[in-house]
Amino acid sequence: MSSLVTIRNLDKSYQRGPEQVHVLNGLNLDIPKGDFVALMGPSGSGKTTLLNLIGGLDTPSSGEIEIEGERIDRMSGAQLAAWRSHHVGFVFQFYNLMPMLTAQKNVELPLLLTNLSAAQRKRNAEIALQLVGLAERGSHRPNELSGGQQQRVAIARAIVSDPTFLICDEPTGDLDRHSAEEILNLLQMLNRDHGKTIIMVTHDPKAAEYATHTIHLDKGELVDAPALAH
């Protein structure tokens, strides 16, 4: 299986006053295309930082990040923004939906950056909502939907542009167990049946069981990830 994400000697540090805080230390990692990876570790271990670097939301202090042969660590801010819009679907813990827009209009948002017609944007949003089981809820606003349904809308928005991979940061962290299981089953289906590569940060061992691999981070270094670490 070909590698989607290739990371070599990745370092990330921040300046906090006079102190330099090291978050990631010399990370080496390969994530195969079509994989569903759970990224786990204690608070402050560097999980979200690594996720943001892979998703092009942040840049490394040093090291290489290659996605499908493209060195995103060399890209400018404008290049990264364009790359993200074509390649990455984001799913966050708190949905990040626009409260004044319907579910369908929320799903259409990423398509406003494309050359698609209004009719085609509407059609693509309908298809994405159908895929996440919300075909009948397109006209509802977020406050008319349950937390689980709002997260389904967020997932539909993430996949509507047919991105190369999905980045999920604690996608079930704000949900009850039943809703969380529905979301995890949905992510598993997108991975298994539609070939979507998924990289998910979670603190929940039960959520990690839905993934095909689990990567453990501690103090910015990989722990016990022999199948993926190098």
Automatic annotation (TrEMBL):
One GO CC term, this protein: plasma membrane
Record CDD domains: ABC_MJ0796_LolCDE_FtsE (cd03255)
Entry-linked Gene3D superfamilies: P-loop containing nucleotide triphosphate hydrolases
Single GO MF annotation: ATP hydrolysis activity
Source organism, top-level taxon: Bacteria
Keyword entries, A-Z: ATP-binding, Nucleotide-binding, Transport
UniProt domain ABC transporter: residue ranges: 5-229
Nucleotide-binding keyword on record: yes
UniProt KW Transport keyword: yes
Similarity-based family: Belongs to the ABC transporter superfamily. Macrolide exporter (TC 3.A.1.122) family.
Annotated protein name in UniProt: Putative ABC transport system ATP-binding protein
Source organism (scientific name): Pseudoxanthomonas indica
